[in-house]
Design a protein that fits this description.
Layout lengths: L3 H13 L5 H12 L5 H13 L3 E8 L7 E7 L1 H18 L3 H6 L3
Antiparallel strand pairs: 1-2
């Protein structure tokens, strides 16, 4: 079973598609979760997700807007897609009938 932060990273990377890289994932998580996302925690978790085979990462080409530094690109694997789907389904099932799900219009 995934952890919450792992799920957020997988969801952000999947949503960003070809534009998925560290800083963009961090911003997407901060916007959605409305809380700070530590850069160190993000990259530590990306390493763990890659070890588990849930994402693939590689260094992209250097970009002028980053002072010639490359971006660490991220792609969710088929295994990562299944794991995120399983996590979402479990949370959705467990959330049925709880007071906060109805209040927020969730699930």
């Amino acid at each position: 079973m995934l952890g919450e932060f792992e799920y957020l990273i997988l969801s952000a990377a999947a949503r960003l598609g070809d534009d998925a890289y560290g800083a963009a994932i961090k911003t997407a998580i901060e916007d959605a979760a409305r809380r700070r996302c530590s850069t160190g925690a993000l990259y530590t978790t990306l390493d763990r997700l890659e070890t588990k085979g849930l994402v693939e990462t590689w260094m992209g080409d250097p970009t002028p807007e980053r002072g010639g530094r490359p971006k660490r690109r991220v792609r969710v694997t088929a295994k990562g897609t299944r794991a995120a789907g399983d996590f979402y389904a479990a949370v959705s099932r467990l959330s049925r009938g709880v007071p906060w799900a109805a209040r927020r219009g969730a699930v």
